[in-house]
Amino acid sequence: MNDFKVDNSLARLGKPFSEASMPTVVPAPQWIAFNSSLAQQLQLPEQYWQTDAGLNLFSGNNLPEWATPAAHAYAGHQFGHFVPQLGDGRALLLAEVIDRDGKRVDMQLKGAGTTPFSRRGDGRSPLGPVLREYLISEAMHALGIPSTRALAAVITGDWVQRDTAEPGAILTRIASSHIRVGSFQYIAHRGANHQAQNGEQTELKTFADYVIKRHYPECLSQANPYLAFLTAVIDNQAKLIANWMSIGFIHGVMNTDNMTISGETIDYGPCAFMDSFNPAQVYSYIDSQGRYAWGNQPKIASWNLARFAETLLPLIAEQREQAIELASAAVQSFGQRNEAYFLQLMAKKIGLQQVTADDEGLIAGFLQLLHSNTVDFSQGFRLLSQSVTDSNSGTITLMTDKAAWQHWASAWQQRLAVQGLDLSQVQANMDATNPAIIPRNHIIAKVIQQATTDGDLRLFNQLKQALATPFELKPDDAFLAAPPSDKEQIKNTFCGT
């Protein structure tokens, strides 16, 4: 325990930022998975590594003295509609761990029973969503995209009633923090009511100062720390959304309570990776209007950040008009930032080291080819490295319009030649950028089906191992990387709450 360092700074803030709550005891916990490499990073004592003590910890049945369980309070715009109180209805922050690099991270149980914010919910999680989040969050990490992580997953030994009765499970999630745009909306909404009575914004300033010190301490030295804070969050989110877009990831439920202040991906509910490329692609069953489609994600992120900016107005400037002007300029910078990050990432995917003004058309042209030829997004990019030296191999095999492909490929190969790089190195760079394997919808569905009906975790374990090295593919894992057949295609994904 000497190297294992914990703190509980958010819990110490107390109400209204969080409320103490204990997990509900479960009858017969059993291991699903344990992330030993992450445990090493956290310097978690080995007494919790796939042991009975670990089962007690990660099921919430018997918490050690260093845990101070608390549910975090937040509000949120859900599909554009403001809900003034949401909060952790099925999750509990156990502690903040200081990892071996000195970084502070949250350790949270997800699916641990009712909390003060559960409303009419049971606070539980079915097995399927736990398996989904474990696999996809760890895949995102392996792809180099900021994300919450999965430390452990356990079956609870009881049943969770959704459309049908499903095995219950608990995920132990690690994050830089679980503070969201909705966290600030909750405090600001309370503050607006309180200010009307007392003319103060004490809670908002306390919370903002805490978050800045924790996540963006460099802002403290700025002339306007709160404006600098807003700008830093905007920039991190611009990078994050660009990363999502570059791998065909669709979050599916980009409500303000699902957007972190740290710039990490959080809450893998109805998320999915695109198969055939379509900018209007939606998988989430509840997103009937396509609000959170792949191509809409930058616009929605900007909208969410405008809601975040609104919460900080009283801190940015004393005069509201001046605060609005400053905050608006910051939010308006999101589009340019996001587009620049996206173009850099996409240029890399087609083998370009530096992006120029003319490259935007080249990138758009390739995406249009993928769309018009109904080409799988990930496979289309992965095979492109084979086309570097021969336009008659690689991605052309996926195209129906060969003439359009050849027209684009000719311009692309000319652009590659201008770089003056060895083409074998270009190919190697592309293969280290475009993943061979992603957590495909139809494979995830098979994992969940086998685990929930037969208790069979073999496919889960095989996929978990393969996703840890997404730019490499072993022959035995080839079926995991293949796009779905017509019969295997998944049209809808579900939240699982």
From TrEMBL:
UniProt key word Amino-acid biosynthesis: no
Molecular function via GO: AMPylase activity; ATP binding; magnesium ion binding; manganese ion binding
Annotated binding of Mg(2+), by residue: N258, D267
EC numbers on record: 2.7.7.-, 2.7.7.108
Catalysed reactions, semicolon-separated: L-threonyl-[protein] + ATP = 3-O-(5'-adenylyl)-L-threonyl-[protein] + diphosphate; L-seryl-[protein] + ATP = 3-O-(5'-adenylyl)-L-seryl-[protein] + diphosphate; L-tyrosyl-[protein] + UTP = O-(5'-uridylyl)-L-tyrosyl-[protein] + diphosphate; L-histidyl-[protein] + UTP = N(tele)-(5'-uridylyl)-L-histidyl-[protein] + diphosphate
Active site (record annotation): D257 (proton acceptor)
Family per similarity comment: Belongs to the SELO family.
Protein name as annotated: Protein nucleotidyltransferase YdiU
